[in-house]
Amino acid sequence: MSASGSRDVLDLLVVGAGAVGGAIALAAARQGLRVGLLERAAAPTFSDATPVTRVATLNIASMEFLARLGVQDALEARRAHAFSGMAVWDGHGPGHIRFDADELGVPALGWTVEHAALEAALWTELEAAGVALWPETEWKSLDIRPDRVDLYGPQHVPLASARLVVAADGAQSPLRTRMGIPVREQDYHARGVVATVTTERPHEDTAWQRFVDDQIIAFLPLADGRSSIVWSQPEHQAADTLALDDAGFCRALEAVIDHRLGTITATSKRASFPLVARHARDYHAGRVALAGDAAHTIHPLAGQGLNLGLADARALVERLHGPARRDPGAETVLRAYTRDRRSENAFMQRAMDGFRLVFGTHAAGLPELRGLGIRLVDQATPLKRRLALRAFGLD
Ligand SMILES: Cc1cc2nc3c(=O)[nH]c(=O)nc-3n(C[C@H](O)[C@H](O)[C@H](O)COP(=O)(O)OP(=O)(O)OC[C@H]3O[C@@H](n4cnc5c(N)ncnc54)[C@H](O)[C@@H]3O)c2cc1C
Question: What SUPFAM superfamilies does this protein map onto (predicted)?
Protein backbone atom coordinates (compact mmCIF):
# COMPACT_ATOMS: atom_id res chain seq x y z
CA MET A 1 0.00 0.00 0.00
CA SER A 2 1.46 3.34 -0.95
CA ALA A 3 0.76 6.71 0.60
CA SER A 4 1.12 8.42 -2.77
CA GLY A 5 -1.79 8.66 -5.18
CA SER A 6 -5.46 8.71 -4.17
CA ARG A 7 -6.00 5.32 -5.87
CA ASP A 8 -4.67 3.61 -2.76
CA VAL A 9 -6.53 5.62 -0.17
CA LEU A 10 -8.37 3.40 2.33
CA ASP A 11 -11.70 4.45 3.82
CA LEU A 12 -10.44 3.60 7.29
CA LEU A 13 -7.10 2.80 8.87
CA VAL A 14 -7.18 1.56 12.46
CA VAL A 15 -4.02 1.85 14.55
CA GLY A 16 -3.94 -0.78 17.34
CA ALA A 17 -5.25 -4.35 17.15
CA GLY A 18 -6.48 -4.59 20.75
CA ALA A 19 -10.08 -5.68 21.16
CA VAL A 20 -11.43 -2.21 20.36
CA GLY A 21 -9.32 -1.64 17.23
CA GLY A 22 -10.00 -5.17 15.98
CA ALA A 23 -13.76 -4.75 16.46
CA ILE A 24 -13.83 -1.38 14.66
CA ALA A 25 -11.85 -2.74 11.70
CA LEU A 26 -14.05 -5.83 11.42
CA ALA A 27 -17.35 -3.98 11.79
CA ALA A 28 -16.32 -1.44 9.13
CA ALA A 29 -15.14 -4.19 6.76
CA ARG A 30 -18.45 -6.01 7.22
CA GLN A 31 -20.11 -2.77 6.16
CA GLY A 32 -18.15 -2.84 2.89
CA LEU A 33 -15.53 -0.20 3.71
CA ARG A 34 -11.91 -0.59 2.58
CA VAL A 35 -10.09 -1.07 5.84
CA GLY A 36 -6.51 -1.48 7.08
CA LEU A 37 -5.20 -2.32 10.56
CA LEU A 38 -1.74 -1.52 11.81
CA GLU A 39 -0.36 -3.12 15.00
CA ARG A 40 2.98 -2.55 16.71
CA ALA A 41 3.11 -6.08 18.23
CA ALA A 42 3.03 -9.47 16.52
CA ALA A 43 -0.28 -10.87 15.20
CA PRO A 44 -2.29 -12.22 18.19
CA THR A 45 -2.45 -15.99 18.58
CA PHE A 46 -4.28 -18.26 21.01
CA SER A 47 -4.29 -22.00 21.76
CA ASP A 48 -5.43 -24.33 24.54
CA ALA A 49 -1.90 -24.02 25.95
CA THR A 50 -2.04 -20.21 26.19
CA PRO A 51 -1.89 -19.33 29.91
CA VAL A 52 -4.67 -17.16 31.32
CA THR A 53 -3.37 -13.59 31.64
CA ARG A 54 -5.55 -10.50 31.02
CA VAL A 55 -9.22 -11.24 31.63
CA ALA A 56 -12.17 -8.89 31.17
CA THR A 57 -15.90 -9.19 31.70
CA LEU A 58 -18.07 -8.52 28.68
CA ASN A 59 -21.64 -7.38 29.18
CA ILE A 60 -24.58 -8.51 27.09
CA ALA A 61 -24.43 -5.51 24.74
CA SER A 62 -20.75 -6.22 23.99
CA MET A 63 -21.37 -9.91 23.38
CA GLU A 64 -24.31 -9.16 21.07
CA PHE A 65 -22.06 -6.82 19.07
CA LEU A 66 -19.33 -9.50 18.86
CA ALA A 67 -21.96 -12.08 17.87
CA ARG A 68 -23.06 -9.81 15.00
CA LEU A 69 -19.41 -9.62 13.94
CA GLY A 70 -19.32 -13.44 13.88
CA VAL A 71 -16.82 -14.00 16.71
CA GLN A 72 -19.02 -15.27 19.55
CA ASP A 73 -18.61 -18.96 18.62
CA ALA A 74 -14.85 -18.55 18.30
CA LEU A 75 -14.78 -16.89 21.71
CA GLU A 76 -16.84 -19.62 23.32
CA ALA A 77 -14.43 -22.15 21.83
CA ARG A 78 -11.61 -20.15 23.40
CA ARG A 79 -12.60 -20.43 27.07
CA ALA A 80 -15.12 -17.54 27.27
CA HIS A 81 -17.35 -18.27 30.25
CA ALA A 82 -20.93 -17.11 30.79
CA PHE A 83 -21.75 -16.18 34.39
CA SER A 84 -25.20 -16.01 35.89
CA GLY A 85 -24.67 -14.33 39.27
CA MET A 86 -23.03 -11.27 40.74
CA ALA A 87 -22.61 -10.64 44.47
CA VAL A 88 -21.34 -7.31 45.80
CA TRP A 89 -20.93 -6.60 49.48
CA ASP A 90 -19.47 -4.17 51.95
CA GLY A 91 -16.59 -5.16 54.21
CA HIS A 92 -17.75 -2.87 57.02
CA GLY A 93 -21.50 -2.91 57.07
CA PRO A 94 -24.45 -5.16 56.44
CA GLY A 95 -24.83 -4.09 52.82
CA HIS A 96 -25.16 -6.90 50.29
CA ILE A 97 -26.61 -6.93 46.80
CA ARG A 98 -27.04 -9.89 44.50
CA PHE A 99 -27.99 -10.04 40.83
CA ASP A 100 -29.19 -13.21 39.14
CA ALA A 101 -29.70 -13.87 35.44
CA ASP A 102 -32.91 -15.80 36.15
CA GLU A 103 -34.35 -12.91 38.16
CA LEU A 104 -33.62 -10.53 35.27
CA GLY A 105 -34.91 -12.99 32.67
CA VAL A 106 -31.63 -13.18 30.72
CA PRO A 107 -29.49 -16.23 29.90
CA ALA A 108 -26.31 -14.69 31.43
CA LEU A 109 -25.21 -11.52 33.20
CA GLY A 110 -21.96 -11.44 31.27
CA TRP A 111 -18.94 -13.38 30.11
CA THR A 112 -15.39 -13.59 31.33
CA VAL A 113 -13.10 -13.52 28.29
CA GLU A 114 -9.36 -13.50 27.86
CA HIS A 115 -7.95 -10.57 25.91
CA ALA A 116 -5.63 -12.91 24.00
CA ALA A 117 -8.62 -15.03 22.93
CA LEU A 118 -10.69 -12.06 21.83
CA GLU A 119 -7.85 -10.43 19.90
CA ALA A 120 -6.95 -13.71 18.17
CA ALA A 121 -10.60 -14.44 17.28
CA LEU A 122 -10.98 -10.95 15.78
CA TRP A 123 -7.70 -11.25 13.87
CA THR A 124 -8.80 -14.54 12.24
CA GLU A 125 -12.06 -12.92 11.10
CA LEU A 126 -10.19 -9.82 9.87
CA GLU A 127 -7.98 -12.03 7.69
CA ALA A 128 -11.04 -13.78 6.29
CA ALA A 129 -12.76 -10.43 5.64
CA GLY A 130 -9.82 -9.24 3.51
CA VAL A 131 -8.75 -6.39 5.81
CA ALA A 132 -5.20 -5.20 5.05
CA LEU A 133 -3.27 -6.27 8.16
CA TRP A 134 0.12 -4.90 9.16
CA PRO A 135 1.40 -6.61 12.33
CA GLU A 136 4.77 -5.59 13.81
CA THR A 137 4.44 -2.22 12.13
CA GLU A 138 4.81 1.16 13.76
CA TRP A 139 4.12 4.53 12.19
CA LYS A 140 6.71 7.23 12.78
CA SER A 141 5.13 10.33 11.25
CA LEU A 142 1.97 11.43 9.52
CA ASP A 143 0.62 14.20 7.31
CA ILE A 144 -2.95 15.44 7.67
CA ARG A 145 -4.18 16.48 4.22
CA PRO A 146 -7.55 18.02 3.36
CA ASP A 147 -8.92 14.70 2.03
CA ARG A 148 -6.83 12.05 3.83
CA VAL A 149 -4.13 11.16 6.33
CA ASP A 150 -0.79 9.73 5.15
CA LEU A 151 1.18 7.58 7.57
CA TYR A 152 4.88 6.87 7.27
CA GLY A 153 7.25 4.34 8.83
CA PRO A 154 11.00 4.74 9.53
CA GLN A 155 12.92 6.83 6.93
CA HIS A 156 9.64 8.35 5.81
CA VAL A 157 8.65 5.18 3.95
CA PRO A 158 4.92 5.47 3.09
CA LEU A 159 2.81 2.96 5.04
CA ALA A 160 -0.80 3.75 4.25
CA SER A 161 -3.28 6.54 3.51
CA ALA A 162 -6.86 6.73 4.68
CA ARG A 163 -9.78 9.16 4.83
CA LEU A 164 -10.22 8.31 8.50
CA VAL A 165 -7.60 7.08 10.95
CA VAL A 166 -8.79 5.62 14.26
CA ALA A 167 -6.45 5.69 17.23
CA ALA A 168 -7.23 2.48 19.15
CA ASP A 169 -3.67 2.39 20.41
CA GLY A 170 -4.33 2.13 24.14
CA ALA A 171 -4.14 4.35 27.19
CA GLN A 172 -0.82 5.98 26.26
CA SER A 173 -2.02 6.51 22.64
CA PRO A 174 0.98 7.82 20.67
CA LEU A 175 -1.47 8.96 17.98
CA ARG A 176 -3.50 11.04 20.46
CA THR A 177 -0.27 12.68 21.60
CA ARG A 178 0.77 13.37 18.01
CA MET A 179 -2.60 15.04 17.36
CA GLY A 180 -2.16 17.22 20.45
CA ILE A 181 -5.46 16.16 22.02
CA PRO A 182 -5.35 17.08 25.74
CA VAL A 183 -6.28 14.50 28.36
CA ARG A 184 -7.64 14.97 31.87
CA GLU A 185 -5.96 12.51 34.21
CA GLN A 186 -6.92 11.36 37.68
CA ASP A 187 -4.28 9.17 39.29
CA TYR A 188 -5.85 6.97 41.98
CA HIS A 189 -2.38 6.23 43.40
CA ALA A 190 -3.55 2.64 43.41
CA ARG A 191 -2.72 -0.53 41.50
CA GLY A 192 -4.82 -3.42 40.26
CA VAL A 193 -3.12 -6.66 41.31
CA VAL A 194 -4.22 -9.52 39.04
CA ALA A 195 -3.73 -13.30 39.19
CA THR A 196 -5.52 -16.56 38.41
CA VAL A 197 -6.35 -18.62 41.48
CA THR A 198 -7.80 -22.00 42.41
CA THR A 199 -10.36 -22.01 45.21
CA GLU A 200 -11.58 -24.77 47.49
CA ARG A 201 -15.26 -23.96 46.88
CA PRO A 202 -16.76 -23.66 43.39
CA HIS A 203 -17.23 -20.11 42.07
CA GLU A 204 -20.90 -20.89 41.31
CA ASP A 205 -20.66 -19.01 37.99
CA THR A 206 -20.76 -15.85 40.05
CA ALA A 207 -18.65 -12.69 39.96
CA TRP A 208 -17.81 -11.86 43.61
CA GLN A 209 -16.84 -8.36 44.66
CA ARG A 210 -16.12 -6.96 48.12
CA PHE A 211 -15.35 -3.39 49.14
CA VAL A 212 -13.06 -3.10 52.18
CA ASP A 213 -11.89 0.41 53.12
CA ASP A 214 -9.93 1.67 50.13
CA GLN A 215 -9.51 -1.79 48.63
CA ILE A 216 -11.79 -3.61 46.19
CA ILE A 217 -11.45 -7.30 45.47
CA ALA A 218 -13.15 -9.04 42.55
CA PHE A 219 -13.17 -12.77 41.77
CA LEU A 220 -14.27 -13.44 38.18
CA PRO A 221 -15.34 -17.01 37.31
CA LEU A 222 -13.36 -18.84 34.62
CA ALA A 223 -14.41 -21.79 32.45
CA ASP A 224 -11.95 -24.20 34.07
CA GLY A 225 -13.31 -23.56 37.59
CA ARG A 226 -10.55 -21.15 38.60
CA SER A 227 -11.11 -17.43 39.20
CA SER A 228 -9.36 -14.40 37.80
CA ILE A 229 -8.85 -11.84 40.55
CA VAL A 230 -8.50 -8.06 40.38
CA TRP A 231 -7.46 -6.53 43.69
CA SER A 232 -7.41 -2.72 43.67
CA GLN A 233 -5.20 -1.39 46.44
CA PRO A 234 -3.40 1.82 47.34
CA GLU A 235 0.15 1.77 45.94
CA HIS A 236 1.95 1.03 49.21
CA GLN A 237 -0.37 -1.89 50.03
CA ALA A 238 -0.06 -3.27 46.49
CA ALA A 239 3.72 -3.24 46.88
CA ASP A 240 3.37 -5.31 50.09
CA THR A 241 0.94 -7.71 48.39
CA LEU A 242 3.26 -8.21 45.44
CA ALA A 243 6.16 -8.92 47.81
CA LEU A 244 4.32 -11.78 49.59
CA ASP A 245 5.25 -15.37 48.77
CA ASP A 246 2.49 -17.45 47.15
CA ALA A 247 1.24 -18.92 50.43
CA GLY A 248 1.09 -15.47 52.05
CA PHE A 249 -0.71 -14.07 49.02
CA CYS A 250 -3.32 -16.86 49.12
CA ARG A 251 -3.96 -16.28 52.85
CA ALA A 252 -4.31 -12.52 52.32
CA LEU A 253 -6.75 -13.13 49.45
CA GLU A 254 -8.88 -15.51 51.52
CA ALA A 255 -9.18 -12.83 54.19
CA VAL A 256 -10.00 -9.98 51.84
CA ILE A 257 -12.77 -11.98 50.11
CA ASP A 258 -14.08 -12.92 53.56
CA HIS A 259 -13.35 -16.66 53.04
CA ARG A 260 -16.36 -16.76 50.70
CA LEU A 261 -14.68 -19.29 48.35
CA GLY A 262 -12.87 -21.27 51.05
CA THR A 263 -9.13 -21.91 50.97
CA ILE A 264 -7.17 -20.62 47.99
CA THR A 265 -5.10 -23.60 46.99
CA ALA A 266 -3.00 -22.24 44.12
CA THR A 267 -2.12 -18.99 42.39
CA SER A 268 -0.50 -18.01 39.11
CA LYS A 269 2.23 -15.40 38.93
CA ARG A 270 0.93 -11.97 39.90
CA ALA A 271 0.95 -8.79 37.78
CA SER A 272 -0.21 -5.27 38.54
CA PHE A 273 -1.38 -2.16 36.68
CA PRO A 274 -1.48 1.48 37.75
CA LEU A 275 -5.07 2.71 38.12
CA VAL A 276 -5.53 6.03 36.37
CA ALA A 277 -8.74 7.50 34.97
CA ARG A 278 -8.24 9.49 31.79
CA HIS A 279 -10.57 11.31 29.49
CA ALA A 280 -9.57 12.98 26.22
CA ARG A 281 -11.02 16.47 25.86
CA ASP A 282 -11.95 15.77 22.24
CA TYR A 283 -12.54 12.46 20.52
CA HIS A 284 -11.22 13.69 17.19
CA ALA A 285 -8.78 16.09 15.57
CA GLY A 286 -8.20 16.46 11.87
CA ARG A 287 -9.18 13.11 10.38
CA VAL A 288 -8.12 11.13 13.45
CA ALA A 289 -10.72 9.75 15.89
CA LEU A 290 -10.03 8.18 19.29
CA ALA A 291 -11.66 5.00 20.61
CA GLY A 292 -11.33 2.70 23.62
CA ASP A 293 -8.55 3.33 26.12
CA ALA A 294 -7.04 5.94 23.79
CA ALA A 295 -10.12 8.08 24.55
CA HIS A 296 -10.86 7.07 28.17
CA THR A 297 -9.72 4.81 30.96
CA ILE A 298 -11.82 4.07 34.00
CA HIS A 299 -11.39 2.48 37.43
CA PRO A 300 -11.74 -1.31 36.94
CA LEU A 301 -14.18 -1.70 39.85
CA ALA A 302 -17.18 -2.41 37.65
CA GLY A 303 -15.28 -4.11 34.83
CA GLN A 304 -16.58 -1.61 32.28
CA GLY A 305 -13.43 -0.40 30.44
CA LEU A 306 -13.58 -2.79 27.53
CA ASN A 307 -17.38 -2.60 27.38
CA LEU A 308 -17.17 1.17 26.93
CA GLY A 309 -14.51 0.71 24.24
CA LEU A 310 -16.71 -1.76 22.36
CA ALA A 311 -19.61 0.68 22.67
CA ASP A 312 -17.34 3.31 21.05
CA ALA A 313 -16.61 0.82 18.27
CA ARG A 314 -20.32 0.20 17.66
CA ALA A 315 -21.20 3.89 17.69
CA LEU A 316 -18.36 4.93 15.39
CA VAL A 317 -19.07 2.29 12.77
CA GLU A 318 -22.81 3.06 12.87
CA ARG A 319 -21.88 6.65 11.98
CA LEU A 320 -20.06 5.41 8.86
CA HIS A 321 -23.29 4.22 7.20
CA GLY A 322 -25.08 5.99 4.35
CA PRO A 323 -23.75 9.32 3.03
CA ALA A 324 -20.83 9.18 5.51
CA ARG A 325 -19.33 6.41 3.37
CA ARG A 326 -18.30 9.05 0.84
CA ASP A 327 -15.98 10.58 3.43
CA PRO A 328 -15.72 8.67 6.73
CA GLY A 329 -13.23 11.22 8.06
CA ALA A 330 -15.52 14.23 7.56
CA GLU A 331 -15.79 16.62 10.49
CA THR A 332 -19.59 16.13 10.69
CA VAL A 333 -19.22 12.36 11.04
CA LEU A 334 -16.61 12.62 13.79
CA ARG A 335 -18.55 15.30 15.65
CA ALA A 336 -21.62 13.06 15.68
CA TYR A 337 -19.54 10.15 17.01
CA THR A 338 -18.15 12.37 19.80
CA ARG A 339 -21.69 13.43 20.71
CA ASP A 340 -22.79 9.78 20.83
CA ARG A 341 -20.06 8.67 23.18
CA ARG A 342 -18.27 11.37 25.18
CA SER A 343 -21.00 12.21 27.67
CA GLU A 344 -21.88 8.51 28.18
CA ASN A 345 -18.23 7.71 28.98
CA ALA A 346 -18.01 10.75 31.31
CA PHE A 347 -21.16 9.56 33.10
CA MET A 348 -19.61 6.12 33.69
CA GLN A 349 -16.43 7.68 35.06
CA ARG A 350 -18.43 9.79 37.50
CA ALA A 351 -20.50 6.76 38.52
CA MET A 352 -17.33 4.77 39.29
CA ASP A 353 -15.95 7.62 41.37
CA GLY A 354 -19.25 7.91 43.24
CA PHE A 355 -19.16 4.18 44.03
CA ARG A 356 -15.57 4.38 45.25
CA LEU A 357 -16.34 7.32 47.48
CA VAL A 358 -19.47 5.83 48.97
CA PHE A 359 -17.85 2.45 49.66
CA GLY A 360 -14.42 3.80 50.65
CA THR A 361 -15.78 5.91 53.54
CA HIS A 362 -16.27 4.37 56.98
CA ALA A 363 -17.02 7.36 59.18
CA ALA A 364 -19.18 6.63 62.24
CA GLY A 365 -22.59 5.30 61.22
CA LEU A 366 -21.92 5.39 57.48
CA PRO A 367 -21.41 1.63 56.96
CA GLU A 368 -24.79 0.97 58.61
CA LEU A 369 -26.45 3.68 56.54
CA ARG A 370 -24.79 2.37 53.41
CA GLY A 371 -25.85 -1.17 54.32
CA LEU A 372 -29.42 -0.03 54.73
CA GLY A 373 -29.29 1.74 51.35
CA ILE A 374 -27.87 -1.32 49.63
CA ARG A 375 -30.45 -3.61 51.25
CA LEU A 376 -33.22 -1.29 50.13
CA VAL A 377 -31.90 -1.37 46.57
CA ASP A 378 -31.57 -5.16 46.78
CA GLN A 379 -35.22 -5.42 47.82
CA ALA A 380 -36.63 -2.68 45.58
CA THR A 381 -37.03 -4.78 42.47
CA PRO A 382 -37.71 -2.02 39.88
CA LEU A 383 -34.72 0.09 41.03
CA LYS A 384 -32.44 -2.94 41.17
CA ARG A 385 -33.64 -3.90 37.72
CA ARG A 386 -32.86 -0.45 36.33
CA LEU A 387 -29.40 -0.54 37.88
CA ALA A 388 -28.77 -3.98 36.46
CA LEU A 389 -30.05 -3.09 33.00
CA ARG A 390 -27.50 -0.31 32.75
CA ALA A 391 -24.58 -2.21 34.35
CA PHE A 392 -25.01 -5.34 32.24
CA GLY A 393 -25.63 -3.47 29.00
CA LEU A 394 -29.27 -4.52 28.76
CA ASP A 395 -30.80 -1.08 28.28
C1 LIG B 1 -6.56 -4.30 36.25
C2 LIG B 1 -7.54 -4.06 35.13
C3 LIG B 1 -8.67 -4.86 35.04
C4 LIG B 1 -9.62 -4.63 34.03
N5 LIG B 1 -10.75 -5.40 33.99
C6 LIG B 1 -11.70 -5.15 33.06
C7 LIG B 1 -12.94 -5.90 33.01
O8 LIG B 1 -13.20 -6.79 33.79
N9 LIG B 1 -13.85 -5.57 32.06
C10 LIG B 1 -13.63 -4.57 31.14
O11 LIG B 1 -14.51 -4.29 30.31
N12 LIG B 1 -12.46 -3.87 31.15
C13 LIG B 1 -11.50 -4.13 32.07
N14 LIG B 1 -10.34 -3.41 32.07
C15 LIG B 1 -10.12 -2.41 31.02
C16 LIG B 1 -9.73 -3.04 29.69
O17 LIG B 1 -8.65 -3.94 29.86
C18 LIG B 1 -9.37 -1.95 28.67
O19 LIG B 1 -10.34 -0.93 28.72
C20 LIG B 1 -9.32 -2.49 27.24
O21 LIG B 1 -8.39 -3.54 27.16
C22 LIG B 1 -8.93 -1.42 26.24
O23 LIG B 1 -8.82 -1.97 24.95
P24 LIG B 1 -8.16 -1.14 23.77
O25 LIG B 1 -8.28 -2.03 22.56
O26 LIG B 1 -8.74 0.23 23.73
O27 LIG B 1 -6.63 -0.94 24.19
P28 LIG B 1 -5.45 -2.02 24.34
O29 LIG B 1 -5.96 -3.35 24.73
O30 LIG B 1 -4.43 -1.36 25.21
O31 LIG B 1 -4.87 -2.17 22.85
C32 LIG B 1 -4.08 -1.20 22.23
C33 LIG B 1 -3.31 -1.83 21.07
O34 LIG B 1 -2.61 -0.80 20.37
C35 LIG B 1 -1.30 -1.25 20.06
N36 LIG B 1 -0.44 -0.08 19.87
C37 LIG B 1 -0.04 0.81 20.81
N38 LIG B 1 0.73 1.77 20.24
C39 LIG B 1 0.79 1.47 18.92
C40 LIG B 1 1.44 2.08 17.81
N41 LIG B 1 2.17 3.18 17.94
N42 LIG B 1 1.29 1.52 16.59
C43 LIG B 1 0.55 0.39 16.44
N44 LIG B 1 -0.07 -0.23 17.45
C45 LIG B 1 0.05 0.31 18.68
C46 LIG B 1 -0.94 -2.13 21.25
O47 LIG B 1 0.13 -3.03 20.94
C48 LIG B 1 -2.26 -2.83 21.53
O49 LIG B 1 -2.39 -4.00 20.77
C50 LIG B 1 -9.39 -3.60 33.07
C51 LIG B 1 -8.23 -2.83 33.14
C52 LIG B 1 -7.32 -3.02 34.18
C53 LIG B 1 -6.10 -2.14 34.27
Answer: FAD/NAD(P)-binding domain
For the segment 250-254, the average pLDDT, to the nearest whole number, is 97
Distances in Å between the Cα of 367 and the Cα atoms of 138, 172, 255 are 51, 37, 19
Quick check: 162 pLDDT over 70? yes
pLDDT at 5 over 50: no
Q: How far is ligand 1, taken at its centre, from the CA of residue 171, in Å? A: 7
Q: Which residues line the pocket of ligand 1, CB cutoff 6 A?
A: 15-21, 38-41, 56-57, 138, 168-170, 174, 192, 194, 230, 273, 292-293, 300, 303-307, 309
Full set of structural domains in the chain with CATH: 6-71+115-184+278-354 (3.50.50.60), 84-109+187-275+361-391 (3.30.9.10)
**Top mutation candidate among 40, 215, 297 for ligand 1, by most atoms within 8 Å of CB:** 40
Give the whole-angstrom CA distance, residue 352 versus residue 62: 19
Per-residue pLDDT band for 350 (boundaries 50, 70, 90) equals confident
Question: What DSSP assignment string belongs to 198-212?
Answer: EESS--TTEEEEEEE
Region 365-377: mean pLDDT is: 60
Residue 228: strand, helix, or coil: strand
- Indicate the burial class of 313 (C-beta count within 10 angstroms; 0-12, 13-18, 19 or more): buried
pLDDT tens for 125-148 read 999 999 999 999 999 999 999 999
Distance 297 CA to ligand 1 centre (A): 9
CB 153 within 8 A of CB 3: no
Nearest atom within ligand 1 for CA of residue 175:
41
Largest CA distance in the chain: 70
* Spatial contact of 311 and 22, defined as CB atoms under 8 Å apart: no
What contacts 225, CB < 8 A, 6 or more positions away? 198, 202, 203
